[in-house]
Design goal:
Layout: H1 5-13, E1 23-24, E2 31-32, H2 34-37, H3 73-78, H4 83-94, E3 98-101, E4 107-109, E5 112-114, E6 118-125, H5 129-139, E7 148-154, E8 157-165, H6 170-179, E9 180-181, E10 184-185, H7 191-194, H8 197-207, E11 208-211, E12 215-218, H9 225-239, E13 243-248, E14 251-256, H10 258-268
Antiparallel strand pairs: 1-2, 3-6, 4-5, 6-8, 7-8, 9-10, 11-12, 12-14, 13-14
Length: 288
């Protein structure tokens, strides 16, 4: 069985930058080092660090990379997504976030086919600018530029929004392969392992809304009925949330019942941006 070439690259680079590390091409069984696969990549992009020897929790020290030049191919394959960021991205992708494939077709390096890189993208209306900037601070390690102001006309009325893109990286291509079937978003089979309370908080902040009576509606109508039934069962089993499906035209929405919202808020309050608290009914604070 042939393995995904991108996955092989990704596994390789996690052990990386040793000329002794080799990759076997399952198509012709030739062996390559990363420097052979990417001969034009600068070997001096990362400076040797013989001073800092501190141990840190993996993924806890990610800083902004705005000032860094374009990554070399080798560095691009070194970039990973730690679990704390993966949970956030899961919530964003299920709601308003997108992963765009910016290249046409596949590339071939030394006879080994590689998938074109992808990047994460999200846009929010200007009234949700505080939330958009908050997301950006969480993901700025993967970005080359700050959020940008966009304007558009709808029925003759001018609207403003903020948006940002990440770099085009193999790690986002892996996510795209998991969350997309061609150009359509899908619910991954392992979504149970990709969700936590922070994921749910971002789904609500991105495209959820308060419904009269105290419940929360999640606008997940881009997914099929089967996928949403699978999703609400996970919410019940993993988070003890009682949810139902509400039909809207020919699509379905996920409704979190009032009693479950009260329990849920205690767990996600720390992740809710102040300007997004309007999505929860005011009396909810009495149940903290």
């Amino acid at each position: 069985k042939k393995k995904n070439p991108l996955a092989r690259f990704y596994m390789l680079v996690n052990n990386m930058l040793s000329k002794k590390i080799i990759l076997e091409d399952s198509y012709n069984h030739e062996l390559y080092s990363l420097y052979t696969l990417f001969p034009r990549s600068s070997k001096l992009y990362i400076k040797s660090n013989n001073i800092t020897k501190d141990l840190v929790v993996y993924g806890s020290n990610l800083e902004s990379t705005l000032t860094l030049p374009k990554y070399t191919s080798i560095i691009s394959y070194m970039v990973n997504i730690p679990n704390n960021i993966l949970y956030i991205l899961t919530g964003l992708i299920l709601s308003d976030g997108h992963i765009n494939n910016i290249s046409k077709g596949n590339k071939s390096i030394k006879g080994l086919n590689t998938t074109a890189n992808s990047k994460f993208y999200i846009k929010q209306s200007i009234k949700h600018s505080e939330y958009l900037i908050y997301i950006y601070t969480l993901l700025c390690h993967y970005c080359t530029s700050p959020p940008k102001l966009k304007k558009a006309y709808l029925k003759g009325k001018l609207f403003y929004a903020l948006e940002f893109y990440t770099r085009s990286l193999p790690c986002f291509t892996l996510l795209r392969n998991k969350f997309y079937l061609k150009r359509t978003k899908i619910m991954p089979k392992d979504i149970y392992d990709l969700l936590n309370y922070e994921s749910i908080a971002h789904i609500i902040m991105c495209n959820g809304y308060f419904q009269k009576g105290g419940g929360i509606v999640l606008n997940l109508q881009n997914f099929t009925l089967t996928e949403l039934i699978y999703f609400i069962n996970i919410l019940y089993i993993k988070f003890n949330l009682d949810c139902t499906l509400h039909k809207s035209r020919n699509k379905y929405l996920v409704y979190i019942k009032v009693a479950s919202v009260k329990k849920l808020y205690k767990e996600i309050e720390q992740f809710i941006v102040p300007s997004m608290k309007y999505k929860f009914y005011k009396n909810l604070y009495d149940y903290q």
